[in-house]
Structure formats: structure tokens, C-alpha cells
Amino acid sequence: MIIIKNKLALQKMAIAGQKLAKIVSLLPEQIKEGVTTLELDQWVVQHLKNAQLISCTKGYLGYRHSTCISVNEEVVHGVPCKEKILKNGDLVKVDICASYKGYCADMARCFFVGGVHSPEAQKLVEVAQRALDVGIAQARVGNRLGDISAAIQHEVEKNGFGVVRDFAGHGIGKKMHEEPELLNYGESGKGPVLRAGMTLAIEPMITQGGYEVCIMQDGWTVRTEDKKLAAHVEDTIAITQDGPQILTRL
Ligand code: MF3
Ligand code: CO
Question: Model-level pTM greater than 0.85?
Fold first, then answer.
């Protein structure tokens, strides 16, 4: 059953989203050559604490960190690690889900270490961001869930990139993962009708090459099968009578 949030729940989710977005806005200064992904995670841990946010991923199915940090061919669920040292040109995806007074917000962004990158990598990130935006634009009362999925898929594929099939966006609220599952591919006009008070984490995961992915030795980190680059961005949104409200943007 998809949970319809009342005004109070939406307010708490909005606060969670704004606090989280503020932290993410400070990340570019931290993401530089020589920094390990574990150090980045520890920086986030401190900032979540200062903002009275509680990590939703720490302790989730045995996951031990407050961020997922995925580099280059890693798509999502990268485990922060002291051996993983960032170098100039790396494409870093940071994903954080945290709650405020029991309500969650989930957010991911892409960053380039040292501001250096190939035009192809830049395009991949831009298309991921655009796919997220066109998906969000479909999150309107009376539309169907498949309208979001189809818009994302269309934007990605028309630019020649791949849509990861094995992972998806999701409903969000008191729990990080609620119904419905929100695929990043599908058909418009299909799926449940969208209503005011639904809250979704929309998160396109896209690839430069094939969309096939595999899970690495650590049991978590998802990488592309062909080791080509992947991008992932995510926002938490609320569907309102006046259109989508993006909770994780300042
Ligand atoms: N924040 C992720 C999402 O967007 C979930 C990470 S699951 C974890 O759904 F356990 F690996 F952290
Ligand atoms: Co998510």
C-alpha cells in the first residue's frame, strides 16, 4: 500500500530534505585528490550529527556506513573504505539517506575530483541530472507512476546511454524504502495513479556502455559489468496539488 503523508509528515520530510541538501552543498570542498572515501563518510557522519539527522543506512541489512560513495564504474552502494583514495578526474557519486524526527530524505549527487573530466563523462552526468528532472516533472497528481519511469528512460536512451535495470527508486517516508518501487524504465500510462501526499525518491542510475551491473567482493558495491562509467543522482520529492515539490534542493 502506498502511504499518503499528512501535512505534519510532509513538513518533517521537508526539514530532513533541506538539512541534507545543505550538507551535500558543502561536499565539493571535501572531494579532492588524496581524500579517502572513508574520510568523506566520516565528514558526513559529523555533519549529520550536527544537523540532528540520523542515518537510515547505518545498520540497514548490516550496512555499516552513513553514505554510499561510488567511484567511476561503481554505480551505487559503494562502501566507504580507507584504501579508496580519490584522484583527479574521478567521477564520485555520494548517496545519503537520513531522517529528522522519524522522517527520511534520500539524496545523491555526482562530483568530479579536481574539476577535471572528459566531455563524455560530463555529458553522462548532465544526462543523469536531466533524466532526474524530466522524471520529477511527471510526478503530478493524476499521472501514473509509469509516466515518471518512461520519461527517465527516454531522456537517457535518446542520449545513447544505458538505464540500469537491477536497481530502482522507491517510495520514502518513515522508512527509507517504502512502496512503490519506481523503475527507471517503463511505459507511460501504466502503474498506480499518483496522488497528493505521495513521497518518492527518484534516482536514475545510468551507464556509458551496457546497463548490466554486478556486485563486488564486499557484497554491496554495484559496478558496471563492462567497467565503463556510471552516473547516479537522486532527489526526494512530494507530490502536491501544485505539482512536485523537491524536498532535497535548497
Ligand atoms: N540511499 C540508497 C537509496 O537510494 C540506499 C542505500 S542502501 C545501503 O536507496 F544499505 F546500501 F546503504
Ligand atoms: Co534511494
Answer: yes
